[in-house]
Amino acid sequence: MPSAEKFERKVFEDILPTLRKTGSYSVKAQKLPSATTLMKLQKHFEELAQRQD
Description:
The chain is mostly helical. The protein has one domain (about 1-50). The chain has helices spanning about 1-20, 35-50. The protein is elongated. It starts with a helix and ends with a helix.
């Protein structure tokens, strides 16, 4: 399982050493799409749905 191996590598090579060194581990916050972007996507999907009808 490549995803399990990738996760295991992340834990043993990044997370655990950071925990041992600093006592904590945090991840960067992900940027969420703006309301304008979400509204544009909604409109786009509604137009696609109408074309399929």
